[in-house]
Design a protein that fits this description.
Elements: H1 13-17, H2 20-26
Length: 69
């Protein structure tokens, strides 16, 4: 991801999870993502948010997804 949330060796998951900036990513579901919202596989797909087609858009299509519904 473009943003680093710390190192697993010295940052706890709780401390990252509680960050307000992290929460905006945590709560994204496939129904909110461009293209994914109309995909028949959206309920079973994990929808990687680490790489998106447009890094400036939180709801951009996953970059590594080659499927077009």
């Amino acid at each position: 991801m473009i943003k680093s949330w710390g190192n697993i060796k010295d940052t706890t998951l709780d401390s990252v999870y509680n960050l307000k900036e992290f929460q905006k990513y945590w709560n994204i579901c496939n129904d909110m993502v461009e293209i994914c919202s109309s995909c028949e596989y959206r309920c079973v797909c994990l929808g990687c948010r680490a790489y998106t087609a447009n890094p400036d858009n939180l709801f951009s299509k996953p970059l590594k997804c080659n499927y077009t519904p």
